[in-house]
Amino acid sequence: MSQRDGFEFEDLQGLLRFGHGRLSEACFMLLKVVDPEAAREWLLKAPVTDASSRTPLPQAAMQIAFSAEGLRVLGIDEAVIEGFSDEFIVGMTGDESRSRRLGDSGGSAPEHWRWGGDPAATPHILLLHYALPGGLQTQRASVEDDRFDAAFELIEILPTRDLGGIEHFGFADGISQPKIDWQQRQSTDLHHRDRYSNRLAVGETVLGYANEYGLYTDRPLIDPRRDERAAILADAEDLPGLKDFARNGCYLVLRQLAQDVSGFWRFLDQQSGGDAERREGLAASMVGRERDGTPLMKTGGDPIPGVAPEQQGNQFTYDADPGGHRCPLGAHIRRANPRSGDFPPGVTGFFSRLIKIFGFGQRRADEDLVASTRFHRLLRRGRPYGPPLTPEAALETDPPQAERGLHFICLVANISRQFEFVQDTWSMNSRFNGMRQESDPLLGGREPLINGENSDCFRLGQTDGPARKVCGLPRFVRVRGGGYFFMPGMRALKYIASLSAADGGAGR
Amino acid sequence: MTPQSTFMILAEIREGEIDALRDLLAGMNRIEGIADPENPLLPFGQFERLHVARFVILEAETAEEMRHHGREPYPWRPSLVFLGDCDGKSRYFLDQLARRAADGLQQIFSHCVGFDPDRDDLLTWMSGRNITPKANYINWIGRTVQQVREEEALQRSLAAYLPRAIEEVGRGNARALRQKLLTHVELERDAGRLQLSPPEPTPKLWWLGNLLHKLGMPSILLLLAPLLLLSAPFLILRLRMLERSDPEIVIRPGRAHIARLSVLEDLDVTNHFNVLGDVKPGLFRLSLLKFLLLTLDYASRHVYNHGYLTRVKTIHFARWVLLDNDRRLYFASNYDGSLEGYMDDFINKVAWGLNLVFSNGVGYPRTSWLIKQGAAREQQFKYTLRRHQLPSEVWYKAYPGLTAFDLARNSRIRQGVERRQSSDRAIREWLGLI
Predict the structure, then answer these.
(1) What is the ipTM of this complex?
(2) In terms of DSSP H, where are the helices of B246-318?
(3) Smallest Cβ distance to B266: which of A101, A375, A463?
(4) Contacts of A464 in chain B (CB under 8 A)
(5) What are the chain A neighbours of B173 within 8 Å (beta carbons)?
(6) What is the mean pLDDT of residues B56-83?
(7) CB A216 within 8 A of CB A203
């Protein structure tokens, strides 16, 4: 708690605090370490961007993250790696059970991926470059020196495209983001937080700090008596005798999601009988927002903590719409962030809380089916790629063929509780919020259940009668690559660079 | 109303036969983790009163934890558990089982100590090894497999017919729409395609026993109240001392162990869960545990018997069993959704409830005042839960693809067919269920 007043932003990689939105050019490089010694030398001088505020604003930025194998190759001790979570160590594709839970099956199965699908060939390093328009080549050239060339082999380069804050289906993106409570002002106590708040404990995105349970997520800690080089690392806040390798670091989840834009609009057009207004309406229902970002839910009401007054598009919950009449229960943004509190739909006092704890006093049979959102938030940092295709162009008879989609990135402190939970229990789950036969209208894999029941429908609740049901949704999004990475703090980067060949990195 | 009952046959596995038994059981699966309902060894699907069943090999993988309490681990021989939940008395069910699946069960149990197919009568042998749980939870007492099937068929039939009904009378006219649907149900029933059997009369003895239990337990508690009140300060003091002195054992589960478990998970909308651990040593912990399990059993029987156990609506069946002279606690459940979601419920919705019972088990995260901390210590709790978890070798559920919430919704749809709602709003709500 020593940093309560001034957060040590200078030890944090910039991406945790900033989306680098102004730096609209970006590319992500997947690297394999071929010469660990050269890689460490390069890393020592690498201009990784930290999170402190700068004036004038920087012209470019670079962030770096490592897979478990990457850390291993660079000489991180196996005991340190064992301090990370299982998901990170095993990787996104290292276990078929995980792929099944994430919905990475059928057309999205890892065996079809462009990269990351083979657990034996996981990229070691993810390098993220950001620059002002026209500056990306210069930015890359400034770090790709001889040492870089000797150290790494390029596995894949993931270009991005600035679509001006719009994703490929045509919707304003990145509107809902948690507000990180850097000053740790908000209580994480279950008794103080029955309603949704957009403010999120630092420990939910940054390792080494208290999370929404008021606890510290497990991470690698190093005994400085055994490893002198660890002296440069910060102390572990919860165990002061130990050095915290992960402090100010976080997990980075990267998934390349190819979007079938013309398939999406064609399906909607066909469902709407060619009527443009109905088509737009159905699209908005599937997303939960109009294309310009206006939510289907009425905004206003009690101010939500962590939502600034100017962010009206975020000033809403679904409490007033339990039946999904205004915004369908299965709408993409409702699944991804149900905005539920600890006691949905809220309690009024001590006794009402007590009654709720025992499961009584529910007004609806379908009340309290969704987990409390605050334990499952994602800080998103994705960027689109590929040439844009407007809905109008997508509907033309022969739309231009090209791969386009999203390089989805989220930053979390607990991959299984945050990213995997949201993906599995909320997005892909055919039973989200008590529904049947559905999965996320945008992301869903549409694979049938074990009893043959379909999961390719979408229900639009109606106030005046039975729900409208749209079925036969094709798969609009295919996973093309992905991996779990760790984005270390600045001190931990120095620590990695300080290792030597004797630490086991060489020759692997 | 037909009450549900439960059975759990426990038998030690013969030395050196565990692998052969495991192979035999694996042969009953359609895929790893899901039983083939028509497997020749035990064709579960032919037993129309069986809701869920499983075979588990109980191994005391965490017995060494007892050393932290300064004691030698209790010895334990790997044992086979065959458990399930059925409609009507389990005695009748076991009898039916022994008659119709004798060959298969004999093959399975011949790997167990003390069973000789030539000498032993299967039913007698099984009944002699049937263990009653200390607490038992049934999501909806009285809902039979037959009812589940009939109501699911009703839901499917209505959902399939609904678009046509809308086409004919329009979406907005709720009453006319309902009439259409009700007529459809009538026609389908007449044609024998739908069946909505009325509930069987409640067995009189069961009804009486249940009533006596319902009234008797609080009466006994009332009688004992003065004694409990007087001793409360000492009991609380003892509890607080133990909460401080009990060793906390936080051991991260191995990845191979987790992989072995997760390969069986999320194949159906429902998952199966087993944990086995030691009860903390000492009379205080055991007595406390027994008292709380008694309370839990009472609450499950008389309060939480219609769709929810406190805030949790995803558990179909669950049992808490004391084994090995009350030295070990075994918990088995059938729950909807992923394990991560189940743990989320445990931590965020019912941590207090889990703490009450499981804090008396070795290796559970430290609690304070019996209900605080414990499961709320997320990481330790997840570790301990996973570490004590055991895989099921075979798992059967009579209605794959259906969650407890689906079943409850289907029942509400049926209610709407049998009892007409009066207000337009109620009609629209009913239509919204389909």
Answers:
(1) 0.96
(2) 255-262, 283-302
(3) A101
(4) 171-172, 174, 428
(5) 465
(6) 96
(7) yes
